[in-house]
Amino acid sequence: MKEYTKAMQAVQEAQDADEEGKHKREIDEQTQKVTMALYTQRAGESEEETLQRAMRDPEIAVRICCCLTGPLFTLVRVPNRE
Q: pTM for this structure?
């Protein structure tokens, strides 16, 4: 999972660096490949498994919100504190 996250960050950095859009097609293809790999890896994952995976990620904080229908799990990305 971490490798896909790193790959997505690299693609985002490439997108930011490609100000003129000369490599837009290649970057879009790589974005699609990483996204599809993530979806494939997570296929069939239950909500509990998703929550457990998120809780293992130190950059993710889990906030439980109570609403009329019961608890709702909201994943919030916490910025790096470097």
A: 0.57
